[in-house]
Amino acid sequence: MREHDLDLYRRIEAQDENALELLYDRYEKLLFSFAFRMTNNKFLSEEVVQEVFTKLWTKKGMYDESKGKFSSWLLTITRNTSIDLLRKKKETPYELEERDALLDERPSTEEVVEWKESSERICTAVKELTSEQQEIIELFYFKGMSQSKIATTCNIPLGTVKGRVRLALKHLREKLSNVQERGVRE
Amino acid sequence: MTKNSCDVLLDYFNDQLTCEERKEFEAHLQICKDCQDELKELQELTADLPYSSEPIEPSAGMRERVLSNVLQAENSDMAMEGTEAEKNKTSNERVTEIIPGKKVNKWYKPLVAAVLVLSLIGNGAAIIYINQDEDVADSGSETIRDTIQRMEELQPSEGVSAQATAMMIEQNKNTNLVVQASDLPPLEGEETYQVWVVEDGKPYRAGTFVPNNNGLGAVSYVINYEGNHKWDTIAITKEPTANSKTPQGNILLSSPL
Ligand SMILES: [Zn+2]
Fold first, then answer.
1. Which chain A residues touch B55 with a CB distance below 8 Å?
2. Are residues B134 and B244 in the same domain?
3. Any CB–CB contact under 8 A between B40 and chain A?
4. Domain A103-182 class, CATH top level
5. Where is the RNA polymerase sigma-70 region domain (chain A) (predicted)?
6. Could you tell me how many CB contacts below 8 A there are between chain A and chain B?
7. Cβ contact A33–B127 (<8 Å)
8. What is the CATH number of domain A5-89?
9. CATH 1.10.10.10: which residues of chain A?
């Protein structure tokens, strides 16, 4: 039976290497893909994953159930680590084209299939947003930009950024539930 | 304070505040119901977004590299409470620095790491994208430029039969260095192999590694030394411990750059 994330995390806190390995295998691809979505760079993405697991391994008491679902929490840590590394590397950016990697999709487990489905679902919903809303989600969430950077990039007043981000995210939520309903009816 | 506290919520969420600003906001968050609600809402509204990422295959050999580096991470990290200490650490130290005091001659899964890195080099060399267009960096977009890569075969010193390849991805200040070596003589005790980049006779650390039982070793390292450097040589030495500031051992392999 699949061991709960929380149980694995407790074992990792107790320095159980086997548990670390199990949790790593469970999340490697998701965290790496998400880090790649954020950084667009495989070197950085590997560094992100390594930092996330280093934190899990070396800092006890990072997570408890008050912080919500373990997977959501882990993704938040991954996002923050990506933003942090991007900031450090900002002065010397570079780009790797990863065509081979993008083509090589092997949904080997049930989870990856599920995730792929939700990925398609979310992408469908995102495409239904206006291009301004898509852009603001991209800049805010995936680029992790500051409000002032978003204001300059989009050429909008600073004071309106927060409202626009919230609105775009709320619209996305509505679209998502529509997509879900359509999916059920089909 | 120049800004209304509630206004920095997004920057807090995106980790864009200075340490001081963050502490200030966290104090505000304790007492501001609006910000608490908005933060919660923001977390809920964005919870699905990571799953919109297209699934991609992790890099070759990544599992072995990451797990061995994680397990080698010094547990004194535990003593470093709070995010500031963490932020002050440069990221390249985490990738490869082997911290004294912990057993270093322990690859997590010794078998394939080095071989897989070599295949990364193979693919990597083919897919690196060179863009030297200077005009793209306007309008605050996150456009990327200046990628040059090179690959060097390191030459063994006399009486040494080991082989090594180094791939460098150079940017204006940083260099990603991936070194893969084979036929390395086994190490004893605390010994490690150390990669150096040399400028005018002055060596700088550029990755530490321990080979597996088959004499294969690999390390990937982000060279991130302050100032401008023109590396003229890359070299690998055997060091008595993982923390040599300058080379103690003889050069086993080297190449001019
Ligand atoms: Zn407030």
1. 29-30, 33, 105, 107, 112, 115-116, 119
2. yes
3. no
4. mainly alpha
5. 23-90
6. 207
7. no
8. 1.10.1740.10
9. 103-182
